[in-house]
């Protein structure tokens, strides 16, 4: 593994650590992690900036609520109120639940999922402001949590459980955002295709004083028949100046 890969792995580990510490890591934890790959404290400024850009606090928690919309705040008030009825686990109880869940006990898996639902909320807050409503982020994280508890048998130590589940939940949220961005780009391309054909048809219709045919548009514009027909299909046949 080269130095760049080692650095990326350490940053990923710090991000996972933050997710199970309330979205915060200490400077000491950062120094300890990156000293293992030969970085000293004088080189860590960009690392601190990167973590803060990901809404991860360095030494103190970031106020994640300030990134929420009013609709998201209203949703979270109701959702977190419903979670308040779930009994919390002590550190000792958590370890016992981790071990039982790793052994495949159904009740332990259920308690483990319930115990991490508030953690999923905190993780979701890290990804707000990127075009996906927090309810959808939480939903995706919860699904990943349910899938993850079925995979715990592959772990060797109970202490690995929260980190693995947190990573799966965060990866799922990141994938959801990536898919949303991809869909948005696709939608923009389709809109541009229709607009290009509609603009060309409008200009030619103004010259001819009537609606134009596809043949005329192919002949008088730089657009191909395929592009014109695709735009007509995408618009549902509603390009006004093509008759």
Describe the protein's architecture and organization.
There is one protein chain. With 243 residues, this protein is mainly alpha-helical. The protein folds into three domains: 3-58; 64-181, Rna Polymerase Sigma Factor, Chain: A; 184-234, Orthogonal Bundle (Arc Repressor Mutant, subunit A), CATH 1.10.10. The protein has ten helices and two strands. A two-stranded parallel sheet has the order 1-2. Helix 1 (3-19) packs antiparallel against helix 2 and helix 8 crosses helix 10 (225-234). The protein is elongated and about 80 Å long. The termini are far apart. The model has no long low-confidence stretch (mean pLDDT 86).
Task: Set down the secondary structure blueprint.
Elements: H1 3-19, E1 24-25, H2 27-35, H3 45-53, E2 57-58, H4 70-83, H5 91-102, H6 106-125, H7 134-148, H8 161-208, H9 214-220, H10 225-234
Parallel strand pairs: 1-2
